[in-house]
Amino acid sequence: MTEPESLHPPAVEPPRGRVATRALFLDRDGVINVDHGYVHRVEQFEFIEGIFDLIRAAGRLGYRVVVVTNQSGIARGYYTEHQFHALTDWMRAAFEREGGRIDAVYFSPFHPTKGIGPYRREDPSRKPGPGMILQAARELDLDLAGSLLVGDRLSDIQAAVAAGVGRALLLVRPPESAPADPPCPVIATPGDAIHWLS
Fold first, then answer.
1. In CATH, what class is 23-184?
2. Pairing of strands 104-108, 64-70
3. Which pTM value belongs to this model?
4. Could you give the CA distance from residue 108 to residue 103 in angstroms, rounded to a whole number?
């Protein structure tokens, strides 16, 4: 669960004597794995081709890899936070086996209309809000202006813009289904994002 300290956090600056690090922000469903709908079990989890290459390249270039994911399935009662964390641990171990690393995972378990009990609420952590990205920047000393986000929904891109992320890419599969006037560059596979890292 990710709850920013305030709706308007201060500008993110690294502590004195420390250098901010660039990050590669990734949505999960639709970017890391095929979005089969409320994925919460290992047998449902299908890695998208090119994602391991992207993570390895980001690591070689010194990027922190940070997942920022809306998980309204928790809010709707389809699965629990415990199940989400168990799948996340499995996913991170899979990247380690492939020579990559996910440095942090932030998730928003809320939904403003479909949530049950305490999960039914508007929350700045839920994309298109920038809460998860801003929290990651504070906790990991990230250089947002030098960072990159890859998402598969316009809400991902809106969150990146609101947080001040320097560049965002919209992953569209298949490419011909891309919006007519996309707000940012469009890529067809996670591996295509490697060319945008520097």
1. alpha beta
2. parallel
3. 0.90
4. 17
| Contact in structure between 142 and 21 (CB atoms under 8 Å) | yes
Identify the pLDDT of residue 18: 58
Residue 176 has pLDDT above 80, yes or no: no
Q: Render 39-77 in DSSP notation, one character per residue.
A: --SGGG--BPTTHHHHHHHHHHTTPEEEEEEE-HHHHTT
Q: Cα(23)–Cα(40) distance, rounded to whole angstroms?
A: 25
Burial of 128 per CB tally in 10 Å (0-12, 13-18, 19+): middle
The residues that bridge with 65 in the sheet, in sequence order, are: 24
Residue 112, phi then psi, degrees to nearest 5: -70, -25
Active site residues: 27, 29
**Hunting for tokens 């070689």 — which residue is that?**
60
Q: What is the mean pLDDT of the chain?
A: 91
CB atoms within 10 A of CB 192: 18
Burial of 21 (0-12, 13-18, 19+ CB in 10 A): middle
Count of CB atoms situated within 10 Å of the CB of 170: 20
> How many other C-beta atoms lie within 10 A of the C-beta of residue 84?
21
State the DSSP code for 33.
B
